[in-house]
Design a protein that fits this description.
With 102 residues, the protein is of the alpha+beta class. The protein has a domain of 70 residues: Arc Repressor Mutant, subunit A (Orthogonal Bundle). It contains 3 helices and 3 strands. The chain has a 3-stranded antiparallel β-sheet.
């Protein structure tokens, strides 16, 4: 593909195994990821690992910054959490929603 060619639009969001998901193709836009994270934060604190694995957020710190730039007050606490059984814990951010923009 040359630099002038464009990539064809993805027909649907796909998992790593190639199975279609129920998320629309634009689910990875910054706004869509921020909406998922804001909704989850309303229910309680979310770790970086949880945001990545369960909310399908590609880079949670960027999404948190995106929300902060739009008036959300989100605190970051540091915790140690394992990603898989038997592995050493990682130091990860735990995001806590303090307030939303008015």
């Amino acid at each position: 593909m040359t630099s002038r060619e464009t990539c064809p639009a993805a027909p649907a969001a796909m998992t790593v195994t190639g199975q279609a998901t129920d998320q629309p193709a634009d689910a990875h836009t910054p706004g869509a990821q921020a909406q998922r994270l804001a909704s989850a934060l309303r229910a309680g604190p979310i770790s970086t690992i949880t945001a990545t694995q369960e909310l399908d957020i590609v880079h949670p710190p960027s999404t948190v910054r995106w929300l902060r730039n739009r008036g959300y007050s989100i605190k970051t606490e540091w915790i140690y959490k394992t990603t898989e059984p038997g592995r050493r814990p990682h130091r990860v951010g735990l995001y806590v929603l303090a307030s939303e923009p008015s």
